[in-house]
Amino acid sequence: MDRQVIDQKLESLRRCLERIQQKCPATAQELINDIDLQDIIALNLSRAVQISVDIGTHLLAETTTPVSTTMGQTFDLLAQANILDATVAAQLKKAVGFRNIAVHNY
Predict the structure, then answer these.
(1) Is 58 an annotated catalytic residue?
(2) When you count CB atoms within 10 A of the terminal residue's CB, does the N or C end of the chain come out lower?
(3) Which among 70, 25, 18 is positioned nearest to 44, based on CA atoms?
(4) High-pLDDT (> 90) share of the chain, %
(5) Which residues contact 57 (CB under 8 A, 6 or more apart)?
(6) How far is Cα 60 from Cα 83, in angstroms, rounded to an integer?
(7) Which H, E and C letters describe the chain, residue by residue?
(8) Are 93 and 72 in contact (CB under 8 A)?
């Protein structure tokens, strides 16, 4: 495993999460009324999910776990390999669903 790759991805993930936190509105109505804010948050959430999948795939490559065929399955496999807590894996899998809606509208 290339630790430098993981570290770079973790730094990118940290920046996405920081940006989301900085832009998170006080109310849902504020978010509804501000399309630019919606775009900033959706883009950074999408990036955060993708980066998380990339990190997971990188970690799984070092195991005998089969290759994931979907983004969501990556988190299931990480939980099965005891790399990621099952509860966290389930939450991240839901985040993939959000990403799919935000990016692909499905």
Answers:
(1) no
(2) C
(3) 18
(4) 89
(5) 68, 74
(6) 9
(7) CCHHHHHHHHHHHHHHHHHHHHHCCCCHHHHHHCHHHHHHHHHHHHHHHHHHHHHHHHHHCCCCCCCCCCHHHHHHHHHHCCCCCHHHHHHHHHHHHHHHHHHHCC
(8) yes
pLDDT for 26-59, tens place per residue? 999 999 999 999 999 999 999 999 999 999 999 9
The answer for residues whose C-beta is within 8 angstroms of residue 47's C-beta and 6 or more apart is: 12, 16
- Known catalytic membership, residue 47: no
Q: Which two tokens stand for residue 95?
A: 């985040």
Q: Which of 14, 19, 47, 99 is catalytic?
A: 99
